[in-house]
Known about the structure:
rod-shaped, CATH 2.40.50.140, 5-stranded parallel beta sheet, Rossmann fold
Amino acid sequence: MDCRVSEDVTTTTTVPATAAETSPENPWPLQLLSQKLKSHIERAPSVWVEGQVIELNRRGTNAFLTLRDVDAEISLPASVWTKLLDRQDAPLERGSRVVALLKAEFWVKTGRLNMAVKDIRPVGLGDLLARIERLRQALGAEGLFADARKKPLPLLPHRIGLITGRNSDAKKDILRNAALRWPAVEFEIREVAVQGNTAVSQMIAALKELDEAPQVDVIVIARGGGALEDLLPFSSEELVRAVSRAATPVVSAIGHEADRPILDDVADLRASTPTDAAKRIVPDVVEELFRVRQSRDRLRSCVTRLVERESERLGSLRSRPALAAPEVLLTNRHEDIGRLRSRSGSSIDVALARAADGLAHLTAQVRALSPQKTLDRGYAVVQLALNGEAGNPGEARRREIVRHPSQAPADAELSVRVAGGRFTAVSTGGPETIEH
């Protein structure tokens, strides 16, 4: 607070310079406090605010109005010159949405704070639409509308959370059409204000409560048609951000096909009407039963064709010789083995006979070439008979075979070996000539 004292206030050296220095023994004069408050408040700058006119009273050259916040239960009284109201293109009425340039004023005599309206302008539909579009572009640039953020809806939700107006037609449409499509559907309903300054806060609270409920599979925010001003809560940045943060899929079903609040862009699914929302969040039991029957028929047909095809294939396999008479393979192999065994036995017998004949022939040849065979034909082997060496009469010395008469002089003792055995003879000498 400014410690300077107004020129209109008479001060003495005993008056504290600041509010902190005052005490019960040395207080400020009330006039001094009022002057300081006025000086401090009047230094505050003017500010443009937006609100809704809920009261408007004309009193001569002055008019007194009350502005209320568009999203909260906060109101503020203000004063305005009637000539400023008269310059408006259209008369200002209760319920009008306006932007006003307010300047804080402090009236010293009465100690009252007054908000003086220095300028006031009605907010038209064009202004509202332009504001909504700027907010839509800003939120879109943040990525709140990206397809990657959108969550898929469950095929068959067990329980549906519904946020709608109290006893509204939108609620009746959704409940009726959803029950017609899937009679077993269950709802968790939250009836809130869907227009006015409390609509946003109530819808956000209901959305938070349903999003935290584990049994809720999808949340529908529904409202019937209305004027642009009535649908403004569904373009509230606070509500849009709350929907983007929700973990449960959210369906937007606001107004008619032509209505396009920002909630439609951030929701995981946009339904053109509440009736369309009921059709898109639950399947049609008649269509599903038809699909089940159709799928069952197709499955039965496929199984029947598969069985028939495999039966034909099995019959074809059974008609083949290998399966029709499988013992033929063993019989043929058994006969082949018998033939091979017979052939091998015959081959062995022939080989043995040939070997026996060859052995007999070789035996005959060996015997024919044997010295004994020669002796059997009348030949004899003549050898000089040699006595054993002295001292070892039993050891026979090697006999020399007589091949020439000259080797057997007269009176030489001979050993003659014939086929029947051996005998001795004495040579008479005198060689005989053999004529060839």
